[in-house]
Write a structure and sequence with these properties.
Elements: H1 2-7, H2 12-18, H3 24-35, H4 39-50
Length: about 50
């Protein structure tokens, strides 16, 4: 599901909602703790690697 959302260029807020987070902030905090960078920092890197 995550790859589908990336390819559609959804916002961080839309992705957070789609995977069950109530707020973008709670998703961003969990993502940053897990991955080590924020979703907004990660998205451009991931989209470039799929190009």
């Amino acid at each position: 599901m995550a790859k589908k959302l990336l390819k559609k260029n959804y916002s961080v807020k839309a992705v957070a909602s789609a995977i069950g987070y109530r707020t973008q902030l709670s998703f961003s905090k969990a993502f940053t703790e897990s991955i080590g960078i924020s979703p907004k920092q990660w998205l451009p890197k991931e989209r470039l690697s799929d190009a």
